[in-house]
TrEMBL record:
This is glycine--tRNA ligase. NCBIfam families: glyS_dimeric (TIGR00389), PRK04173.1 (NF003211). The gene is glyQS. Keywords: Aminoacyl-tRNA synthetase, ATP-binding, Cytoplasm, Ligase, Nucleotide-binding, Protein biosynthesis. InterPro entries: aa-tRNA-synt_IIb, aa-tRNA-synth_II, aa-tRNA-synth_II/BPL/LPL, Anticodon-bd, Anticodon-bd_dom_sf, Gly-tRNA_synthase/POLG2, GlyRS-like_core, tRNA-synt_gly. GO terms for molecular function: ligase activity. The keyword Cytoplasm applies. Belongs to the class-II aminoacyl-tRNA synthetase family. Pfam families: HGTP_anticodon, tRNA-synt_2b. Gene3D superfamilies: Anticodon-binding domain (3.40.50.800), Bira Bifunctional Protein, Domain 2 (3.30.930.10). It comes from Akkermansia biwaensis.
Length: 514
């Protein structure tokens, strides 16, 4: 993972947000390569989900969200994670992710400053693996009490009181990083709240707005407008790609858990009797999609979420999980959510959200199947999957390692790089620039004339460019007249080369990068 994070920074895929100011935790900026990769992913998702289907339409909802929407959906009351704080470092942890630990607990009833100027009765404990680590436990405890004594007190000035030892089994009360006691778990709402308009009262519910925690809610809110304006009939879907925000307690694993991220969501509305069948159909569709963007299905784990772990309103949920270098983690959830969401909004808004079936003359609230994918997580999975280090041996037996991102061409940030073999050769430069201009309206290409051609290939390998086009002496008709007006195309993965006529280049490439 370290190598991937470093390549992403070095080659302009992903940077930490506000890095020059020390970084904004949980936020990331995509650089020139990253933005192309992400756009290609989103555009392919849109093409497969909306453009190539008759039964799905798109929308683009606002990020600022009305308080009542998220009250009705249950987010204001219940979109929270349990959190606890380390008493020593104040680090905040997800209480449900603290591993159960066993060992020797050192308990203290209080502490005093050695010069007698301060005394505190407050129970504290530290967990260490074995009794032999008593000094470590005492140091941690003394640091904690020193903090309570005042900011300039060193732990060496502290005398611990009432020490007792006791074995502790399977406890989630201690910070695994330092053995310090954690606070009791508290619920922490994950949404970012804001005040809308020039009001002086921050608590005025009419002025309260939220940054949306998922794109889904604006789809439910606009379902009726879309139904009335688009002549869609059940079953049909509404798709949306956009930013969502969650004040995650522990953003981590690079972009995997961020505070600002993009989702690609579909709400597929259907008749109640079709929900269970459709959730399986979507599972297949989504697995094929991952395959087509370079995350093979053999590397995706399908978790059929058990009854006691599903949301109470869901009748079936699949989690698609990917083998990231830091563990197997969720990429996408596909949930059959019954009529829960539309029923909540019908109640919350007082507006009828039923569907009128002209054939059966019945009115009912449609059920919904929701494939909800994370765009940033998919980008990360694509990069992890593409990353390769290949050992090469040259003609003289010298070994070398080539770093290459083996993106599928349709997702690669740059589709083709164009080189004149020699930058001093005016005719080669002219033809290479002309090829660049011909290809630019159709795809992202990159012109490079700096350095030896082998070095230029390697730079493109590192950003995953599938094809490098070189204009050489043969292109000019020198050496072999039959090769006039052809170029060399070097393939990233096999490193093999072939010649293609300049006039055929555009079609040759389009057939390979769509
Ligand atoms: N509308 C349903 C919904 O939002 P979710 O499982 O909370 O469901 C869907 O989110 C997807 O959004 C996840 O599978 C994940 O890919 C992405 N996602 C959620 N939280 C994220 C975060 N903090 N950082 C990056 N991606 C996240």
């Amino acid at each position: 993972m370290e190598k991937i994070v470093s390549l992403c920074k070095r080659r302009g895929f992903i940077f930490q947000a506000a890095e020059i100011y020390g970084g904004l935790n949980g936020c990331w900026d995509y650089g020139p390569m990253g933005v192309e990769l992400k756009r290609n992913l989103k555009e392919y998702w849109w093409r497969k989900t909306v453009q190539e289907r008759d039964d799905v339409v798109g929308m683009d909802g606002s990020i600022l969200t009305h308080n009542s929407v998220l009250v009705a959906s249950g987010h204001v009351g219940g979109f929270s994670d349990p959190m606890c704080d380390c008493l020593l470092t104040k680090e905040r942890l997800r209480a449900d992710q603290v591993p159960a630990q066993s060992g020797m607990g050192f308990f203290y009833t209080g502490a005093a400053k050695k010069d007698g100027s301060w005394n505190m009765e407050k129970e504290y404990s530290v967990l260490v693996e074995t009794e032999k680590q008593a000094d470590k436990a005492r140091k941690t405890a003394a640091q904690y009490y020193a903090q309570l004594a005042g900011k300039d007190v060193s732990h060496k000035e502290i005398e611990l009181q009432g020490e007792r030892m006791e074995p502790v089994t399977d406890s989630t009360m201690y910070n695994p990083a330092n053995g310090s006691l954690l606070t009791e778990a508290r619920e922490f709402n994950l949404m970012f709240k804001t005040t809308i308009g020039a009001t002086s009262d921050e608590n005025d519910p009419n002025a309260t707005g939220w940054l949306r925690p998922e794109t889904a809610q604006s789809i439910f809110c606009q379902y009726k407008n879309i139904l009335d304006s688009s002549r869609v009939k059940l079953p049909f879907g509404i798709a949306q790609i956009g930013k969502s925000f969650r004040n995650e307690i522990n953003p981590r694993n690079f972009t995997f858990r961020s505070r600002e991220f993009e989702q690609m969501e579909i709400e597929y509305f259907c008749r109640p009797e079709d929900g269970l069948r459709l959730v399986d159909e979507w599972l297949e569709k989504r697995l094929s999609f991952y395959d087509e963007v370079g995350v093979p299905r053999e590397h995706i784990h399908i978790l059929d979420v058990p009854d006691d772990e599903r949301a109470f309103y869901s009748k079936k949920t699949y989690d698609l999980e990917y083998e990231f270098p830091f563990g197997i983690q969720e990429l996408e959830g596909i949930a059959y959510r019954t009529d829960y969401d539309l029923t909540c909004h019908q109640k919350g808004s007082g507006r009828p959200l039923e569907y009128f079936d002209e054939e059966t003359r019945e009115k009912f609230i449609p059920h919904v199947v929701e494939p909800s994918a994370g765009c940033d997580r998919t980008v990360l999975a694509i990069i992890c999957e593409a990353y390769d280090e290949e050992e090469l041996v040259d003609d003289k037996g010298k070994k070398d390692v080539r770093t290459v991102l083996r993106f599928v061409p349709r997702i690669a940030p740059i589709k083709a790089a164009i080189f004149p073999l020699l930058k001093k050769n005016e005719e080669q430069v002219r033809i290479a620039r002309e090829i660049e201009k011909t290809l630019q309206p159709w795809m992202t290409v990159f012109y490079d004339e700096a350095g030896a051609v082998g070095r230029r290939y390697r730079r493109q390998d590192e950003v995953g460019t599938p094809f490098c086009i070189t204009v050489d002496f043969e292109t000019l008709g020198e050496n072999d007249p039959s090769l006039k007006d052809t170029v060399t195309i070097r393939h990233r993965d096999s490193m093999e080369q072939e010649r293609v006529a300049v006039k055929d280049l555009l079609h040759w490439l389009i057939a390979r990068v769509r």
